[in-house]
Amino acid sequence: MAINNTVCIFISQTKYKITRGSYNKTLTPFGLQSERRSEWEAPDVYRKVSTFFYADKLKTPILIVHGSDDANPGTTPLQASKFYEAIRGNGGTARLVMLPHEPHWYAARESNEQLVYEMLNWFDKYVKNAPPRAQKTAQAVQGAAQQP
Fold first, then answer.
1. N or C: fewer beta carbons within 10 Å in the chain?
2. CB count, 10 Å around CB of 5?
3. What domains can be seen in the chain, in order of their start residue?
């Protein structure tokens, strides 16, 4: 069994979203999905669909898993590394796992086992054992009120 592409898990208060590894569409400037204009013809479109440019607004923990040998021009390993750096550089919580010798899909049994291991640990830490959001907010407000 092969698992296709990069996995990125966004954990928020009400939903889990799994997306694919093209975080900065400006790195593929000559068309994307149904957009046929280049990045120079439609820069706002490319920025709007590039998660990379919203890294400073991501407040929920993110798990990024990517094959280290992904040769797909739209989802190179550089995309995952730079997205991770952007999140961490802006104070966000992220984990980057590069699966060695894996291309655009994950074929090795060990890689698929690692993927499941990472996802289960991530969900245990940030979902199953996480305090409720309202509690975190109340604690933050209370802590701020107690400071001189």
1. C
2. 20
3. 3-146 (3.40.50.1820)
CA gap 130, 145 in Å, rounded: 23
* pLDDT by 10s per residue, the chain, length 148: 444 444 555 544 434 444 556 778 888 788 777 788 988 999 998 888 888 888 998 888 889 999 999 888 778 888 899 999 999 999 999 999 999 999 888 889 999 999 999 999 998 998 888 777 665 555 655 655 555 5
Q: What is the amino acid identity at position 79?
A: Q
This prediction has a pTM of 0.72
CA-based nearest residue to 62, from 4, 134, 12 = 12
Quick one: which H or E segment has residue 66?
strand 62-67
